[in-house]
Amino acid sequence: EVYFKNLSKQKQKEVMEKNGNNHKLRVCVATCNRADYSKLAPIMFGIKAEPQFFELDVVVLGSHLIDDYGNTYRMIEQDDFDIHTRLHTIVRGEDEAAMVESVGLALVKLPDVLNRLKPDIMIVHGDRFDALALATSAALMNIRILHIEGGEVSGTIDDSIRHAITKLAHYHVCCTRSAEQHLIAMCEDHDRILLAGCPSYDKLLSAKNKDYMSIIRMWLGEDVKTRDYIVALQHPVTTDIKHSIKMFELTLDALISFNKRTLVLFPNVDAGDKEMVRVMRKKGIEHHPNFRAVKHVPFDQFIQLVAHAGCMIGNSSCGVREVGAFGTPVINLGTRQTGRETGENVLHVRDADTQDKILHALQLQFGKQYPCSKIYGDGNAVPRILKFLKSIDLKEPLQKKFCFPPVKDNISQDIDHILETQSALAVDLGGTNLRVAIVSMKGEIVKKYTQLNPKTYEDRLALILKMCVEAASEAVNVNCRILGVGISTGGRVNPREGIVLHSTKLIQEWSSVDLRTPISDALHLPVWVDNDGNCAALAERKFGHGKGIENFVTLITGTGIGGGIVHQHELIHGSSFCAAELGHIVVSLDGPECLCGSQGCIEAYASGIALQREAKKLHDDDLLLVEGMSMKKEEIVSAAHLIQAAKLGNTKAESILRTAGTALGLGVVNILHTVNPSLVILSGVLANHYVNAVKDVINRQALSSVKTVDVVVSNLADPALLGAASLVLDYTTRRIY
């Protein structure tokens, strides 16, 4: 760490020397509206805090200066920033032409301002038409441009504007891995892209613990409780104004019917905004006892309002981005945010064409609490951005370079050429041990921690939290960015809710346990939970023999017998999350008793517990030990002793293993006749002992059409941990609900 800090200081020193020893970087930050200021303000505070490196000029334009939208330039002054220039650039109107005229007016006024300021670099945010005017002016006047939040995908004209600004910008700060890949695909210079996260998350992730009740009462009334009100924020869709007005009308009707206290914010300055305000007034929203209609809420207070709301509804990017940091339920209406990455707190209502659909969505979402999502940031964006700014060499050629295909396959690098590895925290709850590991995107176990699994629920949960917190802290030191937590556990699991429904007898006090909520609350990370057999199958699908295979089955042969079924590339859970309980396939009507209470299950024959039981019987009858074997008096008889005896020629031990292998083989034949996979993977400590027996039974007992199935032994050293990690790595940035 000290080495890299010194390297960073040395590089900054070299850049300062190249730029001239006494030259500070003159940064112009231009803000157009309340939304972009919430993203730019943390950067502005960071720049202002380092006057030895930077000079800050603030330009205010757009809806900041309009009374109907709250004269939001005042909040910039309240934050103690000197506003160098105010530009009135909004042409009032009801249609698309007004936006075009506003861009033209900004283009007329900006050159004089930029000539006077002569900034080294201009910071432009997002995808608004005002931002396009800023980027166009700066590019034509040979001023370097740093674009915040490029590469993202939504669903309106904003996409086109955002990507147009990307092509004008010289440097890019993006928020997600997906956005970074989009920028690379758009031929942007890989070395000028910084994956920093969203600057607003630096404030969001530390905001929830502040006093909030006074803020809620100020905006919604004295009698309002947390999680018992709604925040509504909806904007016109400029590519389909008529439909978006109708959708807003239906939303208000649904909110009136839902009968909860609601804070409604005025829409952005866009074509159609005035018509939306007229709809509000037509329905009497400003005078309705359940509604509070406001033009603007300061961002610090808005954070507290959405953090403790029962639900947020509308089509604002804030709903799919910032609100995820608190796990507040969100209803995203229409197509304005189509393509945005979202956490599981977001319910999409794409065709919000009836009041009933919106009302039903409110009934589904209101009052829920979801895991906190860090898709858009980890709270450290501003330090990365300031570091990035300090590294800019003003003597480099201004002309942009484009990197045309083939696109480089590696990920964007930080300023010190340190690659932060995308990783997961993997937790494996076994009958004996509790293990936590940091697992990289490539399946490398970077760090692993092991403790004995406590016997009680309270001790077990406390230990899980303690080990996860320690691992998450260590991840920083090993340069890993944790995307989420995946948990593999025995028993029947509801993966949708993150709840262990029923446990095996090997893990006590482990039924009806909500694992997701406490761990997500403690770590502020999304959490996934699944059965250990399913996790083994996921590990094979991502890292093992199952990679690229459409239909396969994994069987775990260890203390118990479990497994997972992948059909058409998807894991099968079943209607009550009981699919792939492969150890409880019955292969004999009068076989030995199983731990599940039934008789003749595969697990009663072929599990480690079953082999240990038979080994004890032989030992009690003095039939286990043969020449070449010895046991200490206090040594516990195990399945390993039975296997050793069979290898040394003990015929009774051989017979027991042969019966166990046959039972497992018959179970596999039943699986082949039921789901017809193309591959069977045997995993676990007993897999090598059973693989030949299973193949023999298939050749004798299976239908000819399935005898060609491949049966292989897993080559994964830790399928439970790798499977838990794949829960995170496969879905953390690609979940669509």
Q: How would you describe this protein?
A:
Homodimer. Homotetramer. Homohexamer. The hexameric form exhibits both enzyme activities, whereas the dimeric form only catalyzes the phosphorylation of N-acyl-D-mannosamine. The chain has 737 residues and is an alpha/beta fold. The chain has 4 domains: 21-198 and 382-391, Rossmann fold; 205-365, Glycogen Phosphorylase B (Rossmann fold), CATH 3.40.50.2000; 413-544, ATPase, nucleotide binding domain (Nucleotidyltransferase, domain 5); 545-715, ATPase, nucleotide binding domain (Nucleotidyltransferase, domain 5). Helices cover 39% and strands 18% of the residues. It is built from 24 helices and 26 strands. The strands form 5 sheets. It has a 7-stranded parallel sheet with strand order 3-2-1-4-5-6-7, with helices on both faces. A 6-stranded parallel sheet has the order 10-9-8-11-12-13, covered by helices on one side. Helix 18 packs across helix 24, helix 20 packs across helix 21 (639-647) and helix 20 (608-620) runs antiparallel to helix 22. The model is unreliable at 409-418 and 733-737 (pLDDT under 50).
